[in-house]
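Form 7-S
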Amino acid sequence: MASIQRLTTKLISQLNSKPTASLIFLHGSGDTGDGIKQWITFTMGEFSFPHIRVIFPTAPSRPYTPNGGYPSTVWFDRQDISPSVAEHRDTLDPMCDLLGDIVQSEVQSGIPRERIVIGGFSMGAAMALHLAYRHFREVAGVIALSGFLNDNSAVYEVLKERGGRVPPLLQCHGQMDPLVKYSWGKETFRQLQSYGVRGEFESFPNLYHDLNEKELNIMKKTILTWLPES
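Output:
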């Protein structure tokens, strides 16, 4: 796999010098690893675990079409923020390789793949779905907050073609989301279910494209269910 040098920051939140599990959490478009870490902490308080290393990478800065072509810290490019456009595989696939190096690094440090959770917010959630369901299906679970997949996603293609185990999914979405419409998130979950993904879809009636404490507490509880102390 490719070098992770283009991932400009990798913040690690860790209480124990010898963790037994890892969470890799990916920020949304235009944000940073530090930004999503601070946002989560501001919303729910301390977000750490005695036995889990929490990793917050930062996406490389690249020209981003919805931003008028100006650079932004995004995991991949896209022609529009819409489920109907084709995925930009020229940026998606190399990013799977780059993030895959982080997964492999955790494995090399002694964390089994089945003790790793991959998650994210918005574009980071979409990236997490690609990374887990296309490349690392042994992981303990996937978290998608305000997430999405485009119609005819490569994720659906892989799930349709391959049998075997797929990791469980926790997907959360605000019903008032003006950017990634609730119907888009719900359809993503329905499609994933149709290809064998099992999990939970949590709806939040008054939530926009945002995080809230209830959602993050559900996420934390789910992570501890998937990654108990050992």
